[in-house]
Design goal:
Blueprint: E1 14-17, H1 26-35, E2 41-42, E3 46-47, H2 48-53, H3 56-59, E4 69-74, H4 78-90, E5 95-100, H5 105-109, H6 120-133, E6 138-143, H7 152-163, E7 169-173, H8 184-187, H9 195-204, E8 209-213, H10 219-225, E9 231-234, H11 236-240, H12 244-257, H13 266-282, H14 287-291, H15 304-315, H16 323-328
Parallel strand pairs: 1-9, 2-4, 3-4, 4-5, 5-6, 6-7, 7-8, 8-9
């Protein structure tokens, strides 16, 4: 774990996995760690209310190999967020991230997510409350505006206000959020990407860490972004083509931090997940919960379609064990 003092400095590249609802659970994150030892992992958004009143140990369970791992919280009540953050810190998380970017109707109607961009002083109170309870870094993930409030002045004022509460780490999705009329999926695609907008904010706040997110799918674009910001966050590309993250580690992260690391083959990842599954199945996890996150692993490779079909169909049957994963290699490694 690490504290505010040993967060990656502004001179150190930060590459992160974006929090994605129903995607970045502990099974997917474990596979990501096999593919990239230095990728910073984020949970899917978890509401403060769910942690306080639910089985926090079960909800926040993670494998020790996942470090460094950040807990993303959703909520708008400073006291509840602080209590939830304390739970996460006590369970071993390395960072608390506050979601101020989710555009879903359910989240907005609950008074949090991207809706809170219009309430910067409330966000600042939430960050201050969290900081008062935990010694971990506290970051905010947000958008480049909401609805018609998408000017540089608006977003700049939001960052300035929130940063004064002690947040020095901002993750900016390079699209604004449209809170009425667009679904969360549409909000990931329809509002245009505004990378130069994020660059200008990073330049305006050189004392803060600025991480850029949204539509990043090519190594070349990462090099371009890193001329202007302190890090990048990868979302849907990591889920669509997980092995790309190993290439990202090899061709970008290794050079940036001076690490010598060779990626595992796809077959070695499957074998690693089989070992992982053996332990998880003994704890009552169904293998389909693990396999559903692996279906993009052979994206673009010969035999990938048959491999996906085999895993999808067989994982629905009762009594499957980790050997299902090993058996699946017959479709891609000998095709």
């Amino acid at each position: 774990m690490f504290s505010d003092q040993n967060l990656p400095s502004k001179s150190t590249t930060l590459v992160a996995l974006a929090p994605m609802m129903q995607r970045t659970d502990r099974h997917f994150r474990f596979m990501m760690r096999l593919l990239s030892p230095d990728l910073r992992l984020y949970t899917e958004m978890i509401s403060a209310q769910a942690l306080i009143h639910g089985d926090a140990g079960k909800i926040l369970s993670f494998n020790s190999l996942e470090h460094p791992i950040a807990l993303q919280l959703g909520g708008s009540d400073p006291l509840k967020l602080a209590e939830a953050a304390k739970i996460g810190a006590d369970l071993g998380y390395d960072e608390i991230n506050l979601n101020i970017g989710c555009p879903s109707d359910r989240v907005s109607s609950g008074g949090f997510g991207a809706y809170l961009m219009a309430q910067p002083h409330q966000v600042a109170e939430c960050v201050a409350a969290i900081k008062s309870k935990v010694s971990l870094p506290v970051s905010v993930k947000t958008r480049c505006g909401i609805d018609d409030q998408d000017s540089h002045e608006f977003v700049s004022s939001f960052i300035e206000t929130v940063s004064k509460s002690g947040c020095e780490f901002f993750i900016l999705h390079a699209r604004k959020a449209i809170l009425s009329g667009l679904s969360p999926k549409e909000n990931r695609n329809i509002p245009p990407l505004r990378y130069p907008f994020v660059y200008s904010l990073a330049k305006e706040f050189p004392h803060l860490r600025t991480i850029i997110n949204g539509g990043i799918r090519e190594l070349e674009s990462i090099h371009q972004h890193m001329q202007h910001v302190d890090g990048v966050m990868i979302g849907r590309q990591a889920y669509k083509d997980p092995y790309w993250m190993a290439q990202l580690q090899t061709h970008f992260i290794n050079d940036a931090i001076g690490r010598k690391w060779s990626p595992p083959s796809r077959a070695e990842v499957v074998q690693g997940m089989a070992i992982y599954a053996q332990n998880e199945l003994s704890q009552g996890v169904e293998i389909k919960q693990i396999i559903r996150h692996m279906l993009g692993l052979y994206s673009g490779q010969s035999g990938a379609r048959k491999w996906r079909r085999f895993l999808t169909e067989k994982s629905q049957l009762q009594g499957q064990d980790e050997n299902l994963l090993l058996d699946s290699l017959n479709f891609v490694e000998r095709s």
